[in-house]
């Protein structure tokens, strides 16, 4: 691995270690924290490491696309579902650090970045810019640019996943119709991009037709699978919220009835 890739891998592993340490701290003091979240964060970290450091199967473009899916779609889903911000807020003792983190999460800039249309534009729009301009070719000529693109793909994927799932303590929670509509629109834009790559490679590249077609198909169907997983998380979140609202309404009804009897 090159130095930049080594630093990225080391950073990902360090963050994973911090997460697992914080989770263990919660359990030692008697608080609950689901083990599945630990597993999700570890799996998400493994996906990041694999995308950056390991050779992917298939031709050059197919392997690149496999890494893109891991880094930009599957790793973000696993990492977000692990709820690292919630864990940090629970693990940090009351004080300046905890207040600073909560203020950052609920700040206006953070709210703007995780508003679903903005997050979708940063995510899918960045992919259109990467694959339908000479930028993709230039990433093969400049390692700093190559690593910046890696970081953008991961960061934009995290923002988009967080905006759709909204499982962390955000400043404002977007409505279900807005999140669902944004997911559908982003999925359509991702599918159109994959189809365009099937027809024509990124400008300035000369991938073989078979490699190009396999990579475009992987992007199309792999993207569909990730978006179905996001839709499932969205549906489960709605179901849980409706259940909580129904239980609150039943408690209010029982309380009102008891007051009436008295």
- Structural shape: globular
Q: What Rg is obtained from the alpha carbons, in whole angstroms?
A: 21 Å
How many separate domains make up the residues? 1
Helix content: over 70%
Mean pLDDT: 90
Cα distance spanning the termini: 75 Å
Order of H and E elements = HHHHHHHHHHH
Q: Give the helix/strand class.
A: mainly alpha
Instruction: Summarize the main sheet.
Output: none
Can you tell me the residue ranges where pLDDT is under 50 for at least 5 consecutive residues? none
Total number of strands = 0
Number of helices: 11
User: What percent of residues are in strands?
Assistant: under 5%
Subcellular location: Cell membrane
Transmembrane segments: 6-26, 38-56, 68-89, 110-131, 143-164, 176-198, 218-241
Keywords: Cell membrane, Membrane, Transmembrane, Transmembrane helix
Protein name: Cytochrome c oxidase assembly protein
